[in-house]
């Protein structure tokens, strides 16, 4: 089938969702209200719907009066019942799976993925895919390289699978023969538990093929893949030449059996890669995949740190954002792209036909707004209502309105809300670092007066820790603190653990502060006018460059310098 015909077939298959998207762009407020009342009608007879009188709601104002804005913890008691297999709790339809993601405590969140929610999510993704394909038809000339997590990592008490929604999407694509032909990596490879073996297998399979599209959510993962490509290069050359697989003993037999037919000897391809390696002394994606036509990845928030490396890795290749999305929903559709040589976050139009979204002015707060009440240049917290049973859910994200496209706001993700730091998708919370310090203090019987944690943006980012001891401590305790903090934070946050294990975050470093440093800081702030009773030192901040200087007694690793000494940020309660 020709590429032009394939594009025509895809456009025909997505004509209904495309028409819905265009209608929503013409009148986004009407589309948003339609979505809200579709959700309320469908779920009026659920336990939650009856408790909140869904059947009596006739307007957005009624909806807001009946339901307060909630954090995820307010839904957990309902979700616990859904996990046990009980129907009609938050949603009329039982979840087909739960999408797991890091929560604000040490327990992961379980997001219900119902058939109706998945339709909202997936239809938005289809619109995004259609825009991508029509803007960059050259992606059909080669294979697509993705990296996803397993859609089924386990099952709940009620036998419902839980895992990553990205894995489910990929598995769905792989079940359609025409789409499967474009996928460079079989889904089973993503389920390999051994990290190094999985990455080696992915790169071995990809290096054998002509890759025209890299479509990976997290740019830090792309940078990591590129690093591993260079690290594994000599072994890849040998395996491609001989038809072997260096990590065979570390792969499940069923995975080896599935990929074995793809591992025939390719001496000519091996020679191409070997020559590229010898010419430059390193192996980059641009050297072995010159036909690359598009890179899809997140460009918002902290992604810029990684995107700066894309020019060296890819040269000047079209770059497009996935849009503002999470396990809880798909909220925007990018209609414009940039390039890997000049990356920029262009944002995306609100996916008005998808979920119902409200916006609360940030940071000052105020009344929630619909999309027609937003202003260019202003930032807002996102309040989400979707068919997954999360009604008026504060997703703890902040977006900025970049422009309006017709009547539709173009929004860009800026950062997580208060108390959350996320460099590469780990979503570390203040409560998690506090829990980690409490556990290590109790377990090691350490006298810790105060502490603060912040991100250091090095080649591989890391979390820097500054600790004020309650007693004099010996030299060398900073290494112990850094190591134990790392282990406790891994226990508290599964996504931090994954980023550390994969090398996307480096090991933390700790500095021991002079005793009394925090007290002196507090005195200084009070002297500057901060109310004593209203001042709170944050234990987690986004960027170590925001830290003030403290006198450091000693520190772990290369961070024991002036720059690494964190400065507390303060949170003042509003009167």
Your description of this structure?
This protein has 575 residues and is α+β, with helices and mostly antiparallel strands. The chain folds into 3 domains: 3-116 and 322-416, no CATH class; 137-292, no CATH class; 420-572. Helix content is 37%, strand content 20%. It is built from 20 helices and 26 strands. The strands form 7 sheets. A 6-stranded antiparallel sheet has the order 11-13-17-16-15-14. Strands 3-6-7-8-12 form a 5-stranded mixed sheet, with no helix packed on it. A 5-stranded mixed sheet has the order 24-20-21-22-25, covered by helices on one side. α17 (430-444) crosses α18 (477-492). The longest helix has 24 residues, at 219-242.
Overall tally of domains: 3
Largest sheet: 6 strands, antiparallel
Strand order of the largest sheet: 11-13-17-16-15-14
Rounded to an integer in angstroms, the radius of gyration calculated over CA atoms is 25 Å
Proportion in β-strands? 15-25%
| Estimated helix fraction | 25-40%
Individual helix count: 20
Give the overall pLDDT as a whole number.
Answer: 89
Q: Structural class per helix/strand content?
A: alpha+beta
What gross morphology would you assign? Answer: globular
Uncertain stretches: 529-535, 558-575
Number of strands: 26
Give the termini separation.
66 Å
Q: TL;DR of this structure?
A:
Helices cover 37% and strands 20% of the residues.
């Amino acid at each position: 089938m020709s590429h032009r015909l394939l594009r025509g077939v895809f456009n025909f298959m997505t004509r209904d969702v495309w028409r819905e998207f265009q209608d929503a762009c013409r009148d986004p407020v009407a589309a948003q209200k339609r979505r809200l009342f579709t959700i309320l009608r469908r779920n009026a007879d659920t336990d939650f719907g009856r408790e909140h009188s869904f059947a009596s709601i006739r307007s957005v104002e009624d909806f807001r009066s009946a339901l307060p804005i909630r954090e995820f913890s307010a839904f957990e008691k309902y979700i616990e019942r859904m996990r046990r297999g009980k129907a009609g709790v938050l949603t009329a339809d039982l979840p087909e799976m739960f999408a797991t993601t890091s929560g604000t405590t040490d327990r992961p969140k379980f997001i219900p993925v119902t058939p109706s929610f998945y339709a909202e999510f997936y239809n938005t993704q289809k619109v995004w895919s259609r825009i991508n394909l029509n803007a960059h038809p050259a992606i059909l000339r080669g294979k697509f390289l993705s990296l996803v997590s397993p859609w089924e990592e386990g099952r709940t008490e009620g036998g419902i699978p839980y895992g990553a929604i990205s894995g489910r999407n990929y598995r769905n694509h792989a079940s359609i023969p025409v789409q499967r032909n474009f996928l460079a990596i079989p889904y089973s490879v993503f389920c390999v538990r051994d990290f190094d073996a999985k990455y080696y297998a992915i790169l071995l399979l990809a290096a054998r093929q002509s890759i025209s599209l890299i479509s990976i959510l997290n740019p830090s993962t792309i940078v990591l893949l590129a690093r591993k490509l260079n690290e594994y290069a000599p072994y890849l050359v040998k395996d491609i030449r001989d038809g072997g697989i260096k990590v065979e003993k570390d792969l499940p037999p069923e995975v080896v059996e599935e990929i074995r037919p793809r591992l025939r000897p390719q001496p000519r391809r091996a020679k191409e890669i070997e020559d590229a390696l010898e010419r430059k002394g390193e192996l980059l994606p641009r050297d072995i995949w010159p036909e690359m036509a598009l890179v899809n990845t997140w460009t918002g928030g902290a992604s810029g740190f990684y995107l700066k490396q894309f020019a060296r890795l890819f040269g000047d290749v079209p770059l497009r954002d996935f849009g503002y999305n999470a396990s809880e929903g798909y909220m925007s559709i990018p209609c414009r792209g940039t390039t890997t040589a000049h990356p920029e976050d262009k944002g995306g139009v609100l996916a008005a036909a998808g979920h119902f979204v409200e916006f609360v002015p940030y940071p000052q707060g105020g009344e929630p707004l619909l999309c027609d009440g937003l202003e260019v240049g202003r930032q807002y917290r996102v309040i989400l209502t979707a068919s997954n049973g999360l009604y008026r859910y504060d997703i703890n994200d902040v977006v900025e309105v970049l422009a309006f496209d017709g009547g539709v706001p173009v929004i860009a993700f800026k950062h997580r809300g208060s108390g959350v730091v996320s460099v590469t998708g780990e979503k570390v919370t203040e409560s998690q670092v506090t829990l980690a310090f409490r556990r290590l203090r109790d377990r090691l019987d350490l006298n810790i007066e105060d502490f603060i944690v912040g991100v250091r943006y090095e080649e591989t980012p890391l979390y820097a820790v500054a600790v004020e001891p309650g007693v004099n401590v010996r030299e060398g305790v900073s290494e112990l603190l850094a190591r134990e903090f790392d282990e406790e934070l891994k226990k508290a946050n599964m996504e931090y653990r994954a980023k550390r294990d994969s090398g996307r975050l480096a090991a933390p470093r700790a500095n021991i502060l002079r005793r009394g440093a925090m007290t002196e800081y507090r005195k200084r702030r009070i002297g500057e006018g901060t109310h004593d009773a209203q001042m709170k030192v944050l234990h987690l901040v986004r960027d170590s460059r925001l830290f003030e200087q403290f006198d450091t007694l000693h520190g772990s690793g290369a961070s024991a310098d002036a720059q690494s000494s964190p400065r507390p940020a303060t949170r003042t309660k509003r009167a």
